[in-house]
């Protein structure tokens, strides 16, 4: 079944949480073994943030079941501080916006089973021209630790020209990395360097994620001169980058990520109004960027699709890769293409996505020879092309809008059904609680919510075929009938 491109990129973060093989890979600080998940206020609210917004959103993440699906970081972006530091040089929260202070915010979030993220920049000012942390890393890191912060998004604005080479930028960001570690508090470190100095080549030993492109905006594929680059090799990343612009920068660098250190494709745009339910995308890390207080049923349904999230959170940590991309019917922006993505999962399963970025519904085909194209060069215990594969549609069990509406209205409670109940979430086809059982363990136990619905089998040397809607994606989990197949890891 083909569905929204919103799904399409739930898929294609899911498909490439930009991961490399977990074998031999270590997180530099023990965090983000799978891509982080949560919510960030910036794309929906900009500077219009305050204590009430954060805590109300946090409560809804709990009430809607999003926390239990893994969306557990609540990240406060720019504009939270006073315009001046204190007399002793410390960052100070704006008392009008946050009257009870940041420690109160973190205490409240922690009491809900959530984690607290904050923002600064590796520059003299933040992007909104508030005080930033360049040259003050140690004291700011300790301030964040004292406030109970669990995540730092660290931007790149007003860096005083300390950029232009990988070494210069590495050294600038490494100071905050060391300072965070020296506090003794586990703080996930998310670099927002925009990919200017190729962080995928050097950030794995000092950060948990790095932005690999300019800022996303709420468009599927509209070109914008403010986002001038169409490849990863870009000295001016810009902003107003569409979903497809960012996706098409990923294939050459997807395998540069690894468990504990991820390529970051920016926040998730579904629900912000610029793309319909048929035009949306998730990126890795999976950070919701919409107004949760105004979330509609279709948006909740998409964010709650545990079968897709299980691809993103798969413990093996192998990236999907683009097998091929071909021209397709173009839209009003002159854009149109179709592509096939394939990636190995734990237990010998595979994830496959047929992405239709063309302007019309299209029947797409993927042969097993295409899906397993690497098997001939990287080896394996048996040729996967010679086996029969069961095909599970990852969107077939997506929560219906009626169920989602009941949760949003308070007439049904997500947690009353699944929280703390292994049996409950194992038997549910639409809901899952990853705080009770990890995604990896749930897949091993054949959780219906994580596998999706079996729709067909593909025989040896056969072809997977689906009609995929305009700006849509078909996404599948493939499971062999003949036992697990494991190929050697490709080199970085």
Question: Would you mind describing this structure in some detail?
Answer:
- This protein has 492 residues and is an alpha/beta fold.
- It is 26% helix and 18% strand.
- It has 17 helices and 17 strands.
- The protein has helices spanning 5-14, 42-45, 51-63, 66-69, 101-111, 137-146, 166-182, 243-247, 297-303, 306-312, 368-371, 375-378, 401-409, 414-418, 422-427, 439-444, 448-451; strands at 3-4, 37-40, 73-75, 115-121, 151-155, 188-191, 209-211, 262-264, 286-288, 321-327, 337-344, 350-356, 362-367, 389-393, 453-458, 463-468, 472-480.
- The protein has an 8-stranded parallel beta sheet with strand order 8-7-6-5-4-3-2-9. Strands 1, 10, 11, 12, 14, 15 and 17 form a 7-stranded antiparallel beta sheet that branches.
- Helix 1 (5-14) packs parallel to helix 10 and helix 6 (137-146) packs across helix 7 (166-182).
In quaternary terms, these chains amount to single chain
Largest sheet, spatial ordering of strands: 8-7-6-5-4-3-2-9
Radius of gyration: 22 Å
Largest sheet: 8 strands, parallel
- Proportion of residues in helical segments: 25-40%
Find the count of extended strands (DSSP E, 2+ residues). Answer: 17
Structural category is: alpha/beta
The average pLDDT value, as a whole number, equals: 88
Taken from the alpha-carbon principal axes, the silhouette is globular
Low-confidence stretches: 4-8, 18-24, 276-283, 415-424
Q: Termini distance? A: 34 Å
Number of helices: 17
* Percent range for β-strand residues: 15-25%
